[in-house]
Design goal:
The chain has about 375 residues and is an alpha+beta fold. About 25% of the residues lie in helices and about 35% in strands. It contains 10 helices and 20 strands. About 5% of the residues have low confidence. Bound molecules: adenosine-5'-triphosphate.
Amino acid sequence: MLLEATEITKSFDGQSVLRGVSLSVARGEIVALLGPSGCGKTTLLRIIAGLESADVGNLSLNGQDLSKLPVHKRGFGMVFQDFALFPHKNVAENVAFGLRMLNWEKSLQKERVTSVLQLVGLAGFEQRQVYELSGGEQQRVALARSLAPSPRLLLLDEPLGSLDRALRERLMGQLRTILKSAGGRGLPYGVLGVREVNHPTSGADAGRQQIGMTSIYVTHDQEEAFAIADRVLVMNAGRIEQQGLPFDLYHQPHNAFVARFLGMDNLVEAKIVGRDPLSVRTPVGDFYLDQHQLLEVDDIQLLIRPEAGIIEPQRGEGANTLQGKLENISFRGRHRIVTLTVPSAKGQVNLKFAFDTNVILPTDQPMITIRLKQSELMLVRS
Ligand code: ATP
């Protein structure tokens, strides 16, 4: 394990911001810290960077305690939302900044600037002025600047946050590829030897296979976290609610917060009424489920995944069906999100379903019948 943070706790003015957060990051791994605004993501990143100190908790890199190591000796790279480039320097000067600080020889600086610009898709941009570049290009320059000294760990705080949606989506895919093809210290991409003496620890990393840049990526955007990270940590109010591979998190959210934060809003109170087969009672009806977890938990909700719905051409009331009024259809390209208002024992409930664009919606019917796929229903903790 490269980085280990244990029970990190932090308060500002008596307000608890981090409440015992532990995380580990393996060499070459990209870990995303995902959570709503104010949950403590940036504070945790700043503590790892050394820009802030924890009240309680341990932080180590390769087993070395980081608490006494100042920011500039940690050998970490950082990328922020606002790029923080020098506006009056050209691209090459910006990218070479960290290398100059580390007293790299001029010829090696030039060589590295060329290779790192190539890596981020900006080959030949050396002499361009920063203010001439688009937002996406500027962010790639910022990334190149952070990658140039082959940091031991790269910390990224909402690096795509200020870009428009189309550009963000494009860069999302590129960023993962760049991080996976950029090596950390002593890796093939960065083997120039000389800067090893400029880093706080040297030698231990040399000669390793290329495994990508070890990175911690802060975002509040679930799509971004899923697209870029190997592993995602979902944070809420200073704690980690759940962590896992993007696929596992999406398919097995442990609780209602995680499900909602990952965009799954169809949650209704549930009570188990049968165990063989497993069935639950909810305000919108009784349903059968495949899942056999959480049977002993009292406070549960039924998660109806957006993919769960199958439109029944005729009105019907069979097992695992519900009826609702078609409230809204939102076109999203390959699919549409259909909102149904479903009468329930506790007032009306809005449920959202995703349907392929080619599915015919019976828009002329006052009430639509939807059958729920048993495999797309699951129980989560409230
Ligand atoms: P966002 O996505 O909005 O940046 P975040 O999850 O990164 O949010 P943090 O920036 O870590 O959250 O902030 C967590 C809480 O700590 C917030 O309530 C914030 O106001 C508070 N906070 C952060 N830094 C300081 C500080 N230096 N002094 C006082 N309070 C702070």
